[in-house]
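Subject: sequence -> structure tokens, single chain

Hey, anyone have a minute? Need the predicted structure for the following. Not urgent.
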Amino acid sequence: MFGQQGEQLSIAELLSRADALRYNGHYEEAEKLYQQILEQDPNNAAAHYGLGLVYYLHGGDFEKSLAEFKKAVELEPENITYRLDWAKALTTVAPLEEDPPREDDGVAEGGEGRV
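Reply:
Had a minute. Here:
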């Protein structure tokens, strides 16, 4: 991406802009910048993390957010923030994947279980 008067921005500058856009609720613009960063540097953990937050907070695309958080953790396993947010996302998705309990599950009348 180019800044004012055509100067090319560094990945750090792009990341800073993407983070600011995300923080201010401009998720679609932030997503584009994170993706642009990852085109240049596919192993940029911070961009994977930021993209995971965009998917989690804005789009509700929990599967994509989990994949991005996981990649960030794989790239920087010592980063506690990445690990905690990945864990939070996992706890959000896990209940969605389970079948909700039904009233007729379990023991039927007369004490016999269902088959």
